[in-house]
Amino acid sequence: MPPDRIVERNARRVPPSASTRGVAMSDTCEALVRRHWHEANRSAWDSFAALLSPGLVYEVPQTRERIRGSAGYVDLFRTWPGPWRAEVVNVIAQAGKAVTVIDFVTATERMTGITFFEIEAGKIARVTDFWPEPYEPPARFSKYIERYAPLPTDAS
Predict the structure, then answer these.
(1) pLDDT digits 0-9 by tens, 95-118
(2) 85 in a domain, yes or no?
(3) Is 146 contained in some domain?
(4) pLDDT for the residue 149
(5) Which residue, among 95, 103, 86, has the nearest Cα to 48 in the 3D structure?
(6) Range 83-87 average pLDDT
(7) Structural domains counted in the chain
(8) d(Cα 156, Cα 93) in Å, to the nearest integer?
(9) Is 18 within the bounds of a domain?
(10) Are 117 and 36 in contact (CB under 8 A)?
(11) Which domain holds residue 26?
């Protein structure tokens, strides 16, 4: 699959250019974060930057990394090594906030990303990223817990 093609699963399609007149704020936030991933996948950096508040703050609590300003956030995406794409798996949105779950796919791996967005004045103002990794749980003693097989992944 070409890296510029967005893939969405379990999701309602919202055209990036859809009018927001008469649409609930949560729908507007959903359209904004979907467009965020769409423009990132296209490497359309001017269009991507137009979605961002100039004072955007990006944080990754697991690594304690922070970027202040939309230019730095765009640069993070623009300079990511190698081809990649973000497949939107799910979006949950409400007024002023949205969460996306993505599969971040490179030539060699597929990672789950959970991104929390805060939206102000129609622009993305804050982004918090979490990158959970699978792990073996500790021994459990509850008879109600069962293990299940992971979903198959395909990094092609």
Answers:
(1) 999 999 999 999 999 999 999 999
(2) yes
(3) no
(4) 78
(5) 86
(6) 95
(7) 1
(8) 30
(9) yes
(10) yes
(11) 7-130
Question: How is 1-16 classified by DSSP, letter by letter?
Answer: --TT--EESS-----T
Q: Where are the beta strands (DSSP E) in the chain?
A: 7-8, 52-60, 65-68, 84-94, 97-106, 110-120, 123-130
2 or 82, greater pLDDT: 82
Integer Cα distance of 134 and 131 in angstroms: 10
| pLDDT bracket for residue 151 (50, 70, 90) | low
> What is residue 26's three-state secondary structure?
helix
* Average pLDDT score over residue span 62-91: 96
Task: Give the tokens for residue 103.
Answer: 């599969």
**Dist CA 73 CA 76 (whole Å):** 5
Judge whether 100 lies within some domain.
Answer: yes
8: which 2 tokens? Answer: 């969405």
Domain with residue 98: its CATH number is 3.10.450.50
